[in-house]
Here is the input.
Amino acid sequence: MNTQHHAAQPYPPGRVGSSCLLYGGVSMALALAMQLLGLFERGDARLQQSLSWILSDSFQTAVSEPVLFMVAAMFSFGIAFAVLDSPAAWRRIVLGLTALVLVLAMVPVCALWQIYFSPFFVVVAYFWAWFCTMMYTSQHVMPCEIGVVEKTHQPHVGIHAKPERVTASPEQTSPESSDTEGNHQVAKPDNNPDTKYQPKD
Here is the structure.
């Protein structure tokens, strides 16, 4: 019994809520530590220089750190929940790439209004949340995948399938069963045409 259960479900069941909080919080802590250490300052300087050269204008304002923290938290916890609650690997990859393109697209969009949006803090928090949840889902069976697995293992029954009728052949029917039904004997018709002209007894 244990061998069959292990073969049918090789990975342990996963959790969505606690895993989302765990990986989202760890990714935010990692990005915040890198921000406090000043690891993003050189990248910000180069990105501002390249954007100002393309737009030929200097940035008037920059997105504040509390706003960056809120955006990073929204993306990191959001992608963690989306990956954990998606039943297929290709959906998780599509969600990850789509959200990453959306984060990177905020940089040139904000630059059009002369607002500098630093993508490094958000991208680091988002990427680690996505990467950790992808590793977690590859080693666990999520609740959204259990129903899909059960449906695939159920036998397919056609909607228009009709049960076949089993009819007995004339050789299989016995005269006793036909005679005893209702205690009446059914007379067989006589096919001889001269019988009606014979005298009755």
Q: What stands out?
A: DSSP finds eight helices and two strands in the chain. The CA atoms of residues 83 and 93 lie 8 Å apart. The radius of gyration is 38 Å. Confidence is low (pLDDT under 50) at residues 1-7, 150-163, 175-184.
